[in-house]
């Protein structure tokens, strides 16, 4: 589907540059970014840091 969106000039230039570096299309870069955003943040609790404590002398 075709659509028109307004994107900040610098953001569009960076996206085009990234697409060229990865040997892909701007469309693929934008679709991947939109899919990641729609998927939402990673589930909470998937990774947890715990401090290791030891008794002092």
If you had to describe this structure to a student in words, what would you say it looks like?
- The protein has a domain at 9-39.
- Helices cover 49% and strands 0% of the residues.
- The chain is built from 2 helices and no strands.
- The radius of gyration is 20 Å and the shape is elongated.
Q: Report the principal-axis shape.
A: elongated
Summarize model confidence as the mean pLDDT.
88
User: Would you count the extended β strands for me?
Assistant: 0
Work out the helix count: 2
Report how far apart the termini are. 68 Å
Q: Gyration radius, to the nearest Å?
A: 20 Å
Low-confidence stretches: none
Secondary structural class = mainly alpha
β-strand percent reads under 5%
The helix content, as a percent range, equals: 40-55%
Main pleated-sheet profile: none
SSE arrangement, N to C: HH
């Amino acid at each position: 589907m075709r659509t028109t969106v307004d994107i900040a000039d610098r953001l569009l230039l960076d996206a085009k540059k990234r697409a060229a570096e990865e040997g892909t299309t701007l469309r693929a870069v934008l679709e991947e970014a939109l899919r990641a955003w729609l998927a939402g943040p990673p589930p909470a609790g998937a990774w947890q840091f715990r401090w290791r404590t030891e008794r002092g002398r």
